[in-house]
C-alpha cells in the first residue's frame, strides 16, 4: 500500500502542521503496511531545510530527516501530470500552487482513493488513517463500511452477496434492519 500527499509549498503554515502530524503518525501508517511519500513544488534543498522546521514544530530536534521522503517537483511536472494544481491559489509570481491531494494506492499499484482539498483547508490525518482501515478491510472481505464507521464497529455485507453465502461467510451472524420498503438490504455483521 502507498499514500502520496501533495502540498502547496514549503515553508507555509498549514503545510507545516500537516507534515508534522504526518511525521507523528508514520508508525501508524507503517503498522498498516502503507508507504508514505509527500510532494511539494520546491527543491530538495528547500525540503531539507523545511524538514528542520517541521521537526522543530513537533518539539523534536531540528533535523533534516523525516520518516518519509518529499518529492521535489520544482518544475511542477508531476503536479501537472497528476492534476494536482489548484486553479485558485497562486504564488507571488502568479504561478499556480499544488492543492492538497491524497492518493492511496493498493498493492496492485492501482489507485484506491483520491481526496482533494483546497490549499486553504488542512487535512485530517485521523480520517486518512480511518479510510485506509476501511480500504484494507473491504479489499479482503466482502463487506462495506457505513457512515462514520470506525475500526471495530459493525460493517455491512456487500449487496451482491446472496443471504445464504453471507451466513456461511460471516459466522458471527448477519443482522438485518427492517425498513418500510420491506427490502432486507441493510445487512450488518460484526467486523470480520
Ligand atoms: C498554507 O500551507 O498555509 C497555505 C498554502 C497556500 C495557500 C494557503 C495556505
Structure description:
The chain is an alpha+beta fold. It has 2 domains: 2-125, Glutaredoxin, CATH 3.40.30.10; 141-190, Antioxidant, Horf6, Chain A, domain 2 (2-Layer Sandwich), CATH 3.30.1020.10. Helices cover 31% and strands 24% of the residues. The protein has helices at 13-24, 26-31, 44-57, 77-81, 125-140, 163-169, and strands at 2-7, 35-40, 70-72, 85-90, 96-98, 100-105, 111-117, 143-144, 155-157, 175-176, 187-189. The strands form 3 sheets. Strands 3-2-1-6-7 form a 5-stranded mixed sheet. A 4-stranded antiparallel sheet has the order 8-9-11-10, covered by helices on one side. It has a two-stranded antiparallel sheet with strand order 4-5. Strand 2 (35-40), helix 3 and strand 3 (70-72) form a beta-alpha-beta unit. The relative contact order is 0.14. The mean pLDDT is 96. Residues 8-9, 12-15, 89, 97, 119-120 line the site of benzoic acid (BEZ).
